[in-house]
Structure formats: C-alpha cells, structure tokens
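We were asked to recover a plausible sequence for a given structure. The inputs and outputs are reproduced exactly as logged, with field labels preserved.

PROBLEM: sequence recovery
POSITIONS: 209
GIVEN STRUCTURE:
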C-alpha cells in the first residue's frame, strides 16, 4: 500500500488552512441562508391590500371620425399593509386607466416610500389621456356606454416593492393592482357639454406580487 507524501510541510499546512477557511465560510453562508429561509417561512408576508375609494371622470371626449379619446379623471387609491411584523418599501408605483383592455391614460407616478406594519397609504392622483387613439370597436362601445350612462374602466397600479423584516430587506418584487371602477353618469359636472362619471361604490382590487 502506498503512502502519500506531501514533500513540503509548509505547503501542506497552508493547503489545510485554506480548506478549513473555505469550509468555515461555506458553513456560515449556509447557516445564514437557512436562518433567512426560516424567518421568511415563519413570517410569510401577505400581499398589500388595495382599494379604489373614489373615481371621477371630468372629461371623456371622443373626436368624431378619428377615434381619438381625451380623458381627465381623478382617482383615490389606498393600500393597506396587513402584516404584523413585515414592512413594505414602495420603490416605484405608476397608475393609469384602461377601458376594455386598452390604456386610455398615460401613467402617473405615485409617491413612493415606506409602509409600516398595519399602516394605510392613500394616493389621489389625476390621470390624463390626450388624444389617445382607440380601436374603432372600442370607440363604438364607448359611445354606447356613454349614452347608457354607465361605464366600466379599470384603474391599474404597477411598480416594485421590497419587504422589510427587522433590519433585513428583500430584493425587488413586481407589483400589479387591478381595480374595477363601476361609474355612473353625473350630469352637469363634466367639461363643457360632456357629462362626467362618478364611482358608485368602493372597489376591492386584485393584487399580484
């Protein structure tokens, strides 16, 4: 049976030292990852809850023949952090309106910041759409809805958030909130001769993180 001989005692000692250091660092990293995983599983953060509290459309003008839609509206959204031990950083959040799957306003940036445990954040942005081209069938549908005095649009919020547990902060997660707005005509409060529309009841939003 052969016996391995290092030949250089100092070289062997350094090699053993490097192996021990590598094993120690690797063990430390594994322990840290396990602790983070256990904390995450125990706390298991819940998605923020979004509500659409108010929507008013002041202008909804469709240019005849060109299918260009101009919209001015104001919405009120609130977000509720239902977690007892987990905070939320909103790093980016934009709101816009859609009608039958098509965007009818530009994105409006919402104020970002930190939302603590059980906190509520409220935003009330204006949403604008200037001469937005819509498909002919959407223009026809919109005319019918206006004549009926009832309108369904969706207020959407998209952005990025991070979770905060103690001093630990997660990476970025994509956030999407989709809020149905059932609107009824409110004569006499629109822009010029155009009627305005107002939200009929508070709406709960679907949220994906």
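RECOVERED SEQUENCE:
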């Amino acid at each position: 049976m052969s016996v391995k001989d290092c030949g250089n005692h100092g070289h062997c000692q350094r090699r053993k030292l490097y192996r021990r250091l590598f094993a120690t660092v690797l063990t430390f990293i594994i322990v840290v990852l396990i602790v983070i995983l256990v904390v995450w599983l125990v706390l298991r953060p819940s998605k923020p809850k979004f509500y659409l509290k108010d929507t008013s459309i002041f202008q909804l003008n469709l240019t005849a023949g060109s299918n260009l839609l101009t919209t001015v509206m104001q919405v009120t959204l609130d977000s509720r952090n239902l977690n007892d031990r987990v905070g939320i950083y909103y790093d980016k959040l934009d709101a816009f309106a859609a009608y039958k799957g098509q965007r009818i306003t530009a994105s409006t940036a919402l104020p970002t910041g930190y939302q603590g445990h059980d906190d509520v954040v409220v935003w009330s942005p204006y949403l604008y759409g200037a001469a937005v081209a819509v498909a002919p069938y959407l223009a026809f549908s919109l005319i019918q809805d206006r004549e009926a005095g009832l309108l369904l649009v969706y207020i959407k919020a998209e952005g990025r958030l991070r979770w905060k547990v103690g001093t630990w902060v997660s990476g970025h997660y994509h956030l999407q909130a989709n809020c149905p707005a059932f609107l009824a005509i409110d004569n006499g409060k629109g822009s010029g001769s155009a009627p305005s529309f107002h939200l009929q009841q508070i709406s709960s939003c679907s949220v994906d993180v």
